[in-house]
Amino acid sequence: MKKIILLSILIAGYSLTLLSQQKYAVLICGQKPTEYYTANAETGWGDPGDTIKNEFWNDTYLMWEMLVFEKGYSDKNVFVLFANGNDYYINDIANRYNAEVRHEEYYPITDYSATRGNVFNVFEGLASGQNGFPKITQNDFLFVWTFGHGGICGELQFFPCLHLHYSEYICDFELAELVDSIPAYKKAFWMQQCLGGSFADNLQNTYTIFHSAGLEGQSATPQMIFGIQKTK
């Protein structure tokens, strides 16, 4: 809850200067909740006795809902890349996180599966205005939120990365190259996955705000409350 409140303050800080500009957001979470009993020794995530990890979907849904209904983003400008490309719902997921129940006219909120190809397509589309995407201009604002798992990836060389669906991933420098091609004058990044802080040196520039749930090289867990905000 505190992380969501902090993010609200972060986004609201831009709102006064964005009245005549378009606001865009890309939400990426490659991991969906597990549907079976898991323990810490088996997954390295959560506490012993935890069952499904609903936060992967719940946080994605809450982020979309906050942007569209509280922060003035148009739903058509919020691109949701989640797991296998479907809104997540099983019987024990509360209706609080079910767009079909709460916001039927927007259902489903998920636009694409969280694959490497789709991450490239979305950011390249927003940079060029091609393939049905709007073209972001230097006067616009871009917000990027990521969740799921993070780690170290690569074959011959290893880099901090965001895990995507189907065991795919995108490295920190690759994500930076994609968003650097988008000319938005102001950008903000919020990263909740492990090693999110390791993306800061690639994504940080004069007009960018970067916030992560953990410092460089640090894991992020449900027990962590405060991250680190880096601005320059």
Q: What does the model show?
A:
With 232 residues, this protein is of the alpha/beta class. The protein has one domain. Helices cover 27% and strands 20% of the residues. The protein contains 7 helices and 9 strands. The protein has a 6-stranded mixed sheet, sandwiched between helices. The protein has a 3-stranded antiparallel sheet with strand order 4-5-6. α7 links the parallel β7 and β8. The longest helix has 15 residues. The chain is globular. The two termini are 26 Å apart. The C terminus is likely disordered.
Q: What percentage of the residues does DSSP assign to strands (E)?
A: 15-25%
Q: Runs with pLDDT <50, length 5+?
A: 37-48, 225-232
Q: Specify the helix fraction band.
A: 25-40%
Count of alpha/pi helices: 7
Terminal CA distance: 26 Å
Mean pLDDT: 83
Tell me the total number of β-strands.
9
Any key phrases for this structure?
232 residues, alpha/beta, six-stranded mixed beta sheet, 20% strand, globular
Write the layout of secondary structure elements.
Layout (H helix, E strand, L loop, with lengths): L1 H14 L7 E7 L10 H4 L11 H15 L8 E5 L16 H4 L13 H13 L12 E7 L2 E4 L5 E5 L5 E3 H9 L5 E6 L8 H4 L4 E5 L15 E4 L1
Parallel strand pairs: 1-2, 1-3, 3-7, 7-8
Antiparallel strand pairs: 4-5, 5-6, 8-9
